[in-house]
């Protein structure tokens, strides 16, 4: 059994996927726009003008598959969870933290803790909360 995050970006999915490609080396494994659906979509569920928006995307960060979409008008209020990203060493942690913090908001600066040589928390430019930790 696996649990995979499915994130809704309220119209900014393509931008988010590109950001994670640059910031974390994410590899896009699937991308489908609403207009590419093999079946007609219910007009009451898909906002007008959404044809070029992302209906479904999948990308891999390390060994984890993350799924994403522009959604169908839902708010993108990422609260009540964090994505935890394990780094092999302090240099890697600092690089990932800085990349995610670009345009985002640092919630806890990357620093030494009793459980890790580097741990920090940041919400990226889309509001997705991340915890970066060096696993020793």
Automatic annotation (TrEMBL):
Keyword line: Methyltransferase, Transferase, Ubiquinone
GO biological process entries: methylation
Gene3D superfamilies named among the record's database cross-references: 2,3-Dihydroxybiphenyl 1,2-Dioxygenase, domain 1
Domain PhnB-like: 2-133
Transmembrane segments: none
Keyword Transferase recorded: yes
Any matching Pfam family: 3-dmu-9_3-mt
GO molecular function, one term: methyltransferase activity
PANTHER family: PROTEIN YJDN, PROTEIN YJDN-RELATED
Name the record gives this protein: 3-demethylubiquinone-9 3-methyltransferase
Organism listed in the record: Sulfurifustis variabilis
């Amino acid at each position: 059994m696996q649990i995979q995050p499915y994130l809704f970006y309220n119209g900014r999915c393509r931008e988010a996927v590109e950001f994670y490609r640059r910031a974390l080396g994410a590899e896009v494994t699937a991308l489908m726009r609403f207009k590419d659906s093999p079946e007609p979509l219910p007009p009451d569920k898909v906002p007008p003008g959404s044809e070029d928006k992302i209906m479904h995307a999948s990308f891999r960060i390390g060994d984890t598959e993350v799924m994403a979409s522009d959604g169908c008008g839902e708010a993108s209020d990422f609260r009540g969870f964090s994505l935890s990203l394990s780094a092999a060493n302090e240099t890697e942690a600092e690089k990932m933290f800085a990349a995610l913090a670009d345009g985002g908001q640092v919630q806890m600066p990357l620093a030494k803790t009793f459980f890790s040589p580097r741990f920090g928390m940041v919400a990226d430019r889309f509001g997705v909360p991340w915890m970066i930790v060096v696993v020793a």
